[in-house]
């Protein structure tokens, strides 16, 4: 069942183009647009400016200096500590996600450079079971921060997650405490942690590592918050404002430092990192 | 197999007979004895075979002892402190100083309301950001004056509401996780009822975590899991089982340190005994970790959380 067996643990290779078709139709304006142009435009529709959803791989491409990417993820994959089965067995769900995304898990850990500054980077992929944080993601994020300490460089985390991985129960909950504990080490080592929240950064991920950045930036269009609108309406039937859990809501209420347009994120990241570290 | 209602009915019946016995002078003692024996065996059978869902119901039982009950029974001189120094006080998460066996400790305690009226104030034990920030203030106070921290967990979860969201409840929880990971005093947490997700963990990062036998601790409520994963309310019991949220199971999984046995039927059936057991446990754990040099304690706490989780390691390439 599992497609990532011993000796063929897949590492992400940015040079390999996985996408064959040349054209795509924009869901927002309906225009047929040339895919390569979209990619070169940070996955923004060249016609109407709509942000297309980014996979972890596309996100990395859009952020880092060319040719600096190296996948340094730990070779680990999801286990099934509770023998969990909802409408399908947990490990089947995982295998399907691996198949669909070509990724071993919901996060890639990389070494890279932004504006010439070496960083350790964690990037979540929402397509992989909602980017949910289970034991693997918690371990990868913890390991990434330890790598950043070992390399004496900043840690950058790009969140895109609905929250904790329900199928791992208490173990998923504990990842919130785990990542927070390792984050404390990074702070003690005086190494910067830049947290970038994208669509969506909610629940268990928002209530742990993503909110603990030295600097927190939201991408325009991000969804940020703890309890989803449905939960709130079911529990207390409260009227919610139109901008509920949007980037502007988070900004107005002081959860984050800045909101950045997607096309500006790379430059913005380089600028912040430059305050902490000299480019090599 | 009988359910809780049958047991309650039978108990009421026995009580009725006892009163009759007293009032009319008719000797019903044989009948009473027979029924009492029957009740006892039915109860023993029922509580020996509790399903996970039945434990969830006991954890949420309206008669279940709450944090203030334990505070009164186990501690002396509970001196409550109020306010987060920013926006207000929270009545679902209480903090204060108290003495446990004579030793001053800082207390964090989630408190549900007993009545509808009280729950208007306590929000069913669901704390808002001001509650979590007040707790962090109490942690800082504990650290400054070397008071061990005792945390009593009993919440369905953090408060899901617009006000709480606008106050960045997620950020408040995250800050507590960070603070507790490094707090330079011993921390013992006890789940006395519901350990509901991040709202529980935000006062639950500890050197020792104990649970009452019929309390629960979970990443999401069974109702929430059923709605999200099965998309059917009817799957709540199945979700309860799948989540592995009972105290005995969590002990087996190695994520908690001790399960405190409850009287048959739950903590409310013999509260004094339950409070006595919990107190003994807290005192023992604090004595064990209280003698460790603080660096060792922090290192052990770090290992505890750094190693949390289960995954498969593959040989690379
Ligand atoms: Zn368009």
- Based on CA atoms alone, the radius of gyration of chain A comes out at 18 Å
- Largest interface between protein chains, with number of residues from each side: A-B, 71 and 57 residues
Distance between the termini of chain A: 45 Å
Determine the CATH topology of chain A. 2-enoyl-CoA Hydratase, Chain A, domain 1
CATH superfamily of chain A: 2-enoyl-CoA Hydratase, Chain A, domain 1
- Termini separation of chain B comes to 55 Å
Beta content of chain A:
15-25%
Order of helices and strands of chain A: EEHHEEHEEHEHEHEEHHEH
The 3D shape of chain B can be described as globular
In oligomeric terms, what are we looking at? heterodimer
Number of domains of chain B: 2
CATH T-level fold name of the largest domain in chain B: 2-enoyl-CoA Hydratase, Chain A, domain 1
Question: CATH H-level name of the largest domain in chain B... which superfamily?
Answer: 2-enoyl-CoA Hydratase, Chain A, domain 1
Q: Count of helical segments of chain A?
A: 9
CATH architectural category of the largest domain in chain B: Alpha-Beta Complex
CATH class of the largest domain in chain B: Alpha Beta
Low-confidence stretches of chain B: none
């Amino acid at each position: 069942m599992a497609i990532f067996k011993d000796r063929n643990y897949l590492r992400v290779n940015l040079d390999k183009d996985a996408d064959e078709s040349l054209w795509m139709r924009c869901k927002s304006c309906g225009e047929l647009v040339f895919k390569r142009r979209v990619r070169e435009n940070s996955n923004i529709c060249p016609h109407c400016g709509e942000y297309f959803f980014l996979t972890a791989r596309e996100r990395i491409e859009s952020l880092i200096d060319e040719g600096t990417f190296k996948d340094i993820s730990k070779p680990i994959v999801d286990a099934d500590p509770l023998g969990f089965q909802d409408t399908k067995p947990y490990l089947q769900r995982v295998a399907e996600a691996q198949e669909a995304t070509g990724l071993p898990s919901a996060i890639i850990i990389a070494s890279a450079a932004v504006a010439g500054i070496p960083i350790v980077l964690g990037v979540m992929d929402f397509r992989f079971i909602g980017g949910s944080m289970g034991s693997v993601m918690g371990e990868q994020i913890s390991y990434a921060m330890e790598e950043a300490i070992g390399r004496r460089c900043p840690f950058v985390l790009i969140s895109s997650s609905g929250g904790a991985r329900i199928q791992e129960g208490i173990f998923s909950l504990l990842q919130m405490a785990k990542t927070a504990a390792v984050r404390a080490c990074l702070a003690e080592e005086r190494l910067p942690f830049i947290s970038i929240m994208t669509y969506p950064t909610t629940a268990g991920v928002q209530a742990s590592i993503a909110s603990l950045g030295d600097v927190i930036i939201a991408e325009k269009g991000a969804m940020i918050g703890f309890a989803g609108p449905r939960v709130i309406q079911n529990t207390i039937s409260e009227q919610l404002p139109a901008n509920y859990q949007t980037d502007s809501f988070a900004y107005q209420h002081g959860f984050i430092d800045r909101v950045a347009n997607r096309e500006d994120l790379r430059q913005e990241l380089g600028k912040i990192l430059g305050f902490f570290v000299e480019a090599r | 197999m009988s359910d809780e209602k049958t047991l309650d009915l039978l108990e009421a019946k026995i009580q009725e007979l006892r009163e009759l016995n007293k009032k009319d002078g008719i000797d019903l003692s044989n009948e009473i004895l027979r029924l009492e024996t029957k009740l006892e065996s039915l109860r023993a059978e029922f509580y020996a075979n509790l399903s996970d869902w039945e434990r969830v119901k006991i954890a949420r039982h309206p008669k279940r002892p709450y944090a203030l009950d334990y505070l009164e029974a186990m501690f002396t001189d509970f001196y409550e402190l109020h306010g987060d120094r920013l926006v207000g006080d929270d009545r679902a998460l209480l903090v204060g100083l108290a003495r446990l066996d004579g030793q001053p400790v800082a207390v964090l305690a989630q408190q549900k309301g007993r009545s509808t009226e009280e729950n208007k104030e306590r929000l069913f034990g669901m704390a808002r950001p001001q509650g979590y920030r007040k707790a962090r203030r109490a942690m800082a106070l504990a650290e400054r004056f070397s008071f061990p921290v005792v945390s009593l967990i009993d919440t369905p979860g953090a408060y899901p509401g617009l006000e709480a969201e606008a106050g960045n409840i997620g950020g408040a929880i995250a800050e507590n996780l960070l603070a507790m990971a490094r707090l330079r005093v011993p921390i013992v947490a006890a789940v006395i009822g519901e350990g509901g997700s991040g709202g529980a963990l935000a006062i639950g990062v500890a050197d020792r975590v104990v649970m009452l036998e019929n309390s629960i601790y979970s990443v999401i409520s069974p109702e929430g899991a059923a709605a999200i994963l099965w998309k059917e309310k009817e799957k709540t019991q199945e979700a309860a089982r799948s989540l592995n949220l009972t105290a005995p199971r969590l002990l087996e999984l190695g994520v908690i340190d001790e399960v405190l046995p409850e009287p048959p039927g739950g903590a409310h059936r013999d509260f004094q005994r339950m409070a006595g057991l919990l107190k003994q446990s807290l005192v023992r754990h604090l004595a064990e970790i209280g003698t460790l040099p603080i660096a060792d304690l922090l290192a052990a706490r770090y290992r505890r959380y750094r190693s949390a989780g289960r995954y498969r390691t593959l040989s690379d390439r």
